[in-house]
Amino acid sequence: MKQLMEARLAGSLVGRLELHSTRYRWTRNEDGRIWITFDKQEVASFAFWSFHNERYRLARQIRQINRTTDYSDLVQREGYYRAEKEAIEIAHREGFFDQDEFIAALHRYLSLSIDDALRSEDVLIRAVAMLDRRLGKRRLRTMRLGEMEHPLVKRMLGLRLKAEGIELTASSTSQ
Fold first, then answer.
1. Mean pLDDT along residues 128-155
2. Were both Cys, which of 33, 61, 143, 173 would link to 47 (CB 3.0–4.6 Å)?
């Protein structure tokens, strides 16, 4: 996976952007972490435990606010499980993803055209697309991201623009 991903990197990122992965052998499912570094500085991290701890914390808060803390109560059950889905959505908006989500997104990304990757509903696919060599300098100069674009996508675009020597303007990150 790492080799396939790095083969798609823009030339300006080769040697500067690295993908790292580890699995913690003694955990139940050998959970781990994937992180991306740019010039040896960590710029993104996808870890099972940080995602699931945040998801759990958010779900617990939502359940307390909505008074749906008892899954065995038939009246509360739907709200109890809905809180889990809401917590996942919020955690993703806040930038929390686990490594399995990132790996699955990479698998899908590798089979997409650059246009399809840039239009994808998956934040992780759009973020990785910003690093793709198929996204040329001319297109990068004219690229505009909406205000509602996910911070991870904006961060990856910023790294790419920096690597290409293209000045980051306010219009690059908002419409």
1. 92
2. 33
Distance CA(76)–CA(63), nearest Å, equals: 9
User: Domain check: are 78 and 140 in the same one?
Assistant: no
Same domain, 112 and 31: yes
Residue pair 10/135 in contact by the 8 Å Cβ criterion: yes
**pLDDT for residue 171:** 53
Cβ count near 171 (within 10 Å)? 11
3-state secondary structure of 37: strand
Say if residue 151 is in the same domain as residue 166.
Answer: yes
d(CA 87, CA 19): 27
Note the pLDDT tens digit of each residue in 97-113. 999 999 999 999 999 99
pTM comes to 0.85
Q: DSSP characters for 98-142? A: -HHHHHHHHHHHTTS-HHHHHH-S-HHHHHHHTTBTTS-HHHHHH
